[in-house]
Amino acid sequence: MSRVTQFLGQAEIGERVKAVACAIRADAGPDVPVHLVGVLKGAFIFMADLMREIGGPVSCDFIAVSTYAGTVSTGQVQILKDLDRSIEGRYVVVVEDIVDTGLTLSYLQDVFRTRSPGSLKTACLLSKPSRRRVDVPVEYVGFTIDDRFVVGYGLDFDEQYRNLPFIGVVGED
Ligand code: 5GP
Questions:
Q1: How far apart are CA 165 and CA 173, in angstroms?
Q2: Pocket test for ligand 1, best of 47, 62, 68 (most atoms within 8 A of CB)
């Protein structure tokens, strides 16, 4: 495995996760059940931390989609595992690891909209706006970053590095 150079540390990530969680709860209102929909696999660590920072009633579900092979986007989205429960009428927040071209999220938002949620918002840990190919609404963004392929805190490169507690770049000094 190659060396990973950190550029977002654990403490920094923790602070932003808290801030995003506070904003989600503030927008939802104190007693509204928030239903988090995590996009596997990249979002699972962000989702676990985010969920514990949102006070009040919170439930979760997961959807798995096919994503990159290596570092190249195919632009093709395929649902590998669908949600377990209906989102009809629920206050849904989609939880994504990173919005790059926006194609995955845009596809998922279209799918979820057809299922009549009461509200549909999106939280992503990272956003690379310079790479966007579709204009997709994201209400909560942890960090806006430049066009670099990042790993750690749930994000992988060929299934490695998800366990790093920080976010970094492979093989850079
Ligand atoms: P998009 O459809 O927005 O181009 O890409 C979405 C997915 O591609 C993300 O959910 C993530 O799984 C993957 N991805 C995009 N950029 C990166 C990156 O810098 N690092 C990693 N590990 N995955 C990325």
A1: 19
A2: 68
Q: How close is the Cα of 99 to the center of ligand 1, in Å? A: 6
pLDDT by residue, tens only, the chain of 173 residues: 789 999 999 999 999 999 999 999 999 999 999 999 999 999 999 999 999 999 999 999 999 998 654 445 556 788 999 999 999 999 999 999 999 999 999 999 999 999 999 999 999 999 999 999 999 999 999 999 999 999 999 999 999 999 999 999 998 55
The structural domains of the chain, with segments of one domain joined by +, span 10-159
Measured N-to-C along each axis, helices 44-53 and 10-28 cross at an angle, to the nearest 10 degrees, of 60
The fold of the 10-159 domain, in CATH, is: Rossmann fold (3.40.50)
* 149 C-beta closer than 6 A to ligand 1: yes
Q: Which helix (H) or strand (E) holds 138?
A: none
Which residues are designated catalytic?
Answer: 100
Query: For residue 18, how far is the Cα from the chain centroid?
Result: 15
Report the separation in Å between the CA atom of 32 and the middle of ligand 1, taken as the mean of its atom positions.
Answer: 30
